[in-house]
Amino acid sequence: MATVYAFVAHNDGVLDDSAAELAAAAKKFTDAPVTAIVSGSGVDAAAAKAAELFPAVWKMDAAELAYPNAEVVRKALLNNLDAGAVVLMAHNTFGMDLAPGLAVKTGGAFVADVVAIEGADGDTLKVVRQEFGGVVSTHVTVDMSAGAVITIRPGAIAAEEGAAAGGAVEEKAVGDVSAKRKFIEVREPEAGDVDITKAEVLVSVGRGIEDQDNIELAHELAKAIGSQAEVSCSRPIVDAKWMDASRQVGTSGKTVKPKVYLAMGISGSFQHMGGIKGGLIIAVNKNPNAPIFQVANVGIEADILEFIPELTEALGEL
Ligand SMILES: Cc1cc2nc3c(=O)[nH]c(=O)nc-3n(C[C@H](O)[C@H](O)[C@H](O)COP(=O)(O)OP(=O)(O)OC[C@H]3O[C@@H](n4cnc5c(N)ncnc54)[C@H](O)[C@@H]3O)c2cc1C
User: Fold this and answer.
1) Least CB-packed of 45, 57, 147, 248 within 10 Å?
2) How many structural domains is the chain composed of?
3) ipTM
4) Does ligand 1 lie within 6 Å of residue 299's CB atom?
5) pLDDT digits over 5-40, tens only?
């Protein structure tokens, strides 16, 4: 098998959780050393962190890579990758932009949004993807003989605890990365009313809450739980303008790490679940086949419009 690379995401010198997940994902199909690729401007700290997870690290450090422009990064990768390379990256917003074009340019196979890796037999890789919002799993074989670009769903493959690779960092010249796509500006999101990323307990409501007026039920439950609890939501609730975007959990919202996550009337789309990192997930849903029951630690089949007030009342009696 050709060299396996992991393109790792980072921010301000801090590696994204997906970096360790990519290291674990690679070990599921190769015993060979995997090279992490850290791209950006001023990435010494991120490269050093990547070296704790991977036996080798390529540092692509250049002013042109300061902003996440997939066209520029793709060119820098193509200037360095060897023929037949197998490249893993997170199935996040940037990975979705970078990966397909990279596969086209390298001529390798492309598999998106992998949730499990079953192993490899020679150049044939077996992976699992999900269809129909997670209701159906598809087992896919991938011919990696001409290389491959594989995006892995964040949170789907568990990182290894306490991995210490002690890798060596090698600086790579990025080469010609002139691109038609130009960086214009970074727009910070408006500050919201609460910081759900700090909450220990999240009462999170989805479309199952049915009506804007019912959102008050979630606030009452959070109040009954105590000051460590906040209310968060899935994206349809923000789209309906029933809650501020600062409360949205998911790949296009916030990433949260509460001790307890109460998912109320949330189906469990990967875009939502991708924003939950750790903690006990308690899902309440009236549909016994809701995909969230496959990933929740505790599943309760109930109507949340009855369950939430009952739980609030019971907590009030403690
Ligand atoms: C690029 C992109 C980015 C996205 N980013 C995000 C994101 O960051 N966060 C996010 O959440 N979504 C995101 N989405 C949307 C995502 O795909 C789903 O559509 C969304 O998460 C579904 O929200 P939901 O679970 O609340 O609604 P639904 O999928 O409609 O599920 C509602 C659930 O409530 C249950 N229910 C209904 N009534 C009741 C009741 N009375 N009691 C109990 N259960 C009930 C139903 O059985 C169902 O399971 C994104 C989509 C795209 C394309």
Assistant:
1) 45
2) 2
3) 0.99
4) no
5) 999 999 988 999 899 999 999 999 999 999 999 999
